[in-house]
Write a structure and sequence with these properties.
Elements: H1 11-16, H2 19-45, H3 49-77, H4 81-87, E1 103-104, H5 106-115, H6 122-135, H7 140-146, E2 153-154, E3 157-158, H8 166-169, H9 176-184, H10 198-217, E4 225-226, H11 227-236, H12 239-245
Antiparallel strand pairs: 1-4, 2-3
The structure holds iron/sulfur cluster (2 copies).
């Protein structure tokens, strides 16, 4: 990528981080750009839809590997990082966070949908088609109150753990009770804090920014999208994938906060 200035972090990180740290994050986002932009070109060269989907699945797997490597590097290299890692409460079966709004890029929507082909994923596709129209219109607070689990949560486990979105990858907490309290706080009451390391969340923001910069340069819709709704769009009408790849606006933007 020749201009990392095109990569935008989310508003919180844009406002709170120093220019040096932001540039470091944008440089990481640039690595993601360099994975996704060629994948879009490759998919556009293919005439076979299965090969097009494959280009996205492969690019998502590579970007996810970069994310895991960056995240692991953070926990291993900062002073006290391993202690912080050991203090994380996140584990299989803990899923309060999967009832909250998750925003993804259209790249992630296309890649995750592309991986959900075949009869073995029919249950998840059906769940997405049913859940997406309910979650799409909700802002974060409405989603929190609605108590609607992500359609990809099956028996308390993420069915797409290996290819889950950046937002899910970057969210950790040191006490699951924090997450539970957030879900159970009544409307109108200030939400309690969740003790959560900021760097993985900033990495997720850099990855999404890199992905969106690549999509923007390729003339593709690059809005932030609500996870279940975006996937439901592709599940409900697979032709939308080709339309998006040709530059069409097929996804509904996530509800504003
Ligand atoms: S973020 Fe909270 S709810 Fe999600 S896995 Fe971690 S501790 Fe559990
Ligand atoms: S994709 Fe997986 S980790 Fe993310 S909200 Fe859905 S079930 Fe949870």
């Amino acid at each position: 990528m020749d201009d990392i200035g095109k990569i935008r972090l989310n508003n919180v990180f844009e406002q709170m981080l120093s220019p040096v740290i932001k540039d470091q994050l944008r440089a990481i986002g640039g690595r993601v750009y360099d994975v996704i932009a060629p994948a879009v070109d490759q998919a556009r060269r293919e005439t076979d839809v299965a090969r097009q989907r494959e280009a996205f699945v492969d690019a998502h797997a590579l970007a996810a590997a970069i994310f895991e490597s960056e995240c692991s590097g953070y926990f291993h290299n900062i002073p006290g990082g391993l202690d912080l890692f050991k203090s994380l409460a996140c584990k299989s079966g803990c899923s309060f966070c999967c009832e909250l709004k998750v925003e993804i890029t259209a790249f992630e929507a296309a890649a995750i949908w592309a991986a959900l082909q075949g009869d073995e994923w029919a249950r998840q596709r059906g769940a997405l088609a049913a859940t997406g129209p309910r979650t799409g219109p909700l802002d974060s607070e409405e989603r929190r109150r609605a108590r609607i689990p992500c359609a990809l949560l099956v028996d308390g486990q993420c069915a797409v753990y290996e290819f889950r979105p950046y937002g899910c990858r970057g969210f950790f907490a040191t006490d699951a009770a924090d997450c539970e309290r957030v879900l159970k706080t009544p409307p109108g009451v200030t939400l309690p804090p969740v003790r959560s390391p900021a760097v993985p969340r900033a990495l997720a923001s850099a990855f999404a920014g890199g992905a969106n910069a690549a999509l923007a340069d390729k003339g593709l819709q690059h809005d932030y999208l609500e996870l279940n709704s975006a996937l439901a769009t592709l599940v409900g009408r697979p032709a939308a994938f080709g339309e998006w790849l040709a530059g069409g606006r097929v996804f509904t933007r996530a509800a504003a906060e």
